[in-house]
């Protein structure tokens, strides 16, 4: 599903050049649930940005579902993002003047799905995250966990190949975190490929594989025994 | 870009961001409103100005006789100059190239009465051509004609207000009025744009006036209309040679300031036109300033709007909005708001102007108005500049990496 070869990325900071990613190689198969771990400055966010086509690598190759991702202009990147990727952010990033349902329907708007179909689909995905009766509520009427569930529904609505979650539980207490992880695990169970960036050990162990980044190189890449989040959710 | 779904998205955004919509809409509406009102006031100022100076023909000289202050060719000073019928004929004979029409004007103040109503009015003994110099408009009946002059008929043409004063609502045509002791038949009623005083006048044939005054041939002033095509230079040349002609005929010292005086409307006209042009430039300048202020206002709002929406745009981009879609969202929204509020402001302004009418006449503003085409063009200018002002920050927002926009809290 995702294949990365010899990925390099450096940022220019004035006269200095900061080498963030120093030749990464790894691949992710369909249906995997991968945690990318590392302390801040390890390059995990940069990696996620490149995977999310929000940033471009200096060298190396990146293939997503058999499509080589290179020479992207903004328009092309936007189309690929819409088609291939779903994003979940630490701060939810819901549009605050749109209802839960409208937020979920937004990626479909950019896929030019007709309004009626959009709303049906959005409701379907809201139902999947257990928020069907909250469809008409604005984000500020929802709790943090509910917001993140709406965000996940929105990420899923476009039926992406890969779900990218950047610290999805970073702004949530541990109980809500487990609920969200439970949801992510359920989505993964249905065969979706998911990448989770986190620095929390317990969250990482709820994934099936942990890639450990340090100073721009992969220091560890191991399969783990998945801890089911459901056991923490009463 | 312009399908129904996009519009629905825009309407929802507008509805749910009322403050933003109100701010940008208000700026534009106010800008256009002030522009329309100011521009209209400027036009009202020009109207007042035209009212003061613009109700008579402009291709006219008024020749006034005076009293000499210098001796000349054996004549003593302090001699009263008078015009008579021969002067009319001589001027006509000597200036055929310049002259369009000529009429004497014998001014008297007479008591005019009909039945029990009576009042004092200006009576002017004139020729048929006087109608052109005063731009007299005949409402009913006719003006004096050459037959009246020749036959010294006792016909009178009375002003609209004279009829109103003496006859009330009744028709005056064919009735006999008493003018200074003689009976005249009313053959016409006129109106004049020059104000009430210009409509409280009784015109009678100058020959009749002369007959009443012991069959004299004296004629007071002379009104000379020149051909408009001779232009300003031609008028000035005519003015000069007419002056010379009269001075030589009446033996007036060429340097005498008081023997004869020619009021040249063409000269006045030129000054008036210059003044009107200055007014128009001032009005244009003020209007231009208002539009610039409006453009700056809408630009500020647009920068604010884009800044406020940076995060939202970042989210939209992460969800697959292309840069074009991002720019389109902002531009369509702003153009829609500016168009609607611009036209609302324009309409309010036009309504205000047309409801004012003569109410501000004391402030020298008469019938303020604005050409619809000017108002619409100004509105479009503001819409276009609003769009440009929105495009620049929108393009920058569209270029920002979503991840940067999302981090921006």
Automatic annotation (TrEMBL), chain A:
Pfam families attached to this UniProt entry: ABC_tran (PF00005)
Domain ABC transporter as annotated: residue spans: 2-233
CDD domains registered for this protein in UniProt: ABC_MJ0796_LolCDE_FtsE (cd03255)
Xref: Gene3D superfamilies: P-loop containing nucleotide triphosphate hydrolases (3.40.50.300)
Keyword tags: ATP-binding, Nucleotide-binding, Translocase, Transport
InterPro entries per UniProt: AAA+_ATPase, ABC_transporter-like_ATP-bd, ABC_transporter-like_CS, MacB-like_ATP-bd, P-loop_NTPase
GO molecular function: ATP binding
Family note: Belongs to the ABC transporter superfamily.
PANTHER family named in the record: CELL DIVISION ATP-BINDING PROTEIN FTSE (PTHR42798:SF6), LIPOPROTEIN-RELEASING SYSTEM ATP-BINDING PROTEIN LOLD (PTHR42798)
UniProt-recorded name of the protein: ABC transporter ATP-binding protein
UniProtKB/TrEMBL annotation, chain B:
Pfam families reported in the protein's UniProt record: FtsX, MacB_PCD
Topology in membrane: Multi-pass membrane protein
Protein name: ABC transporter permease
Record's subcellular location: Cell membrane
Species the sequence originates in: Zobellia barbeyronii
Native organism taxonomy: Bacteria, Pseudomonadati, Bacteroidota, Flavobacteriia, Flavobacteriales
Transmembrane stretches, start-end: 21-41, 278-305, 326-353, 373-392
Superkingdom of source: Bacteria
UniProt keyword Transcription regulation, yes or no: no
Subcellular location, principal: membrane
Domain MacB-like periplasmic core: 21-229
ABC3 transporter permease C-terminal domain segment(s): 285-402
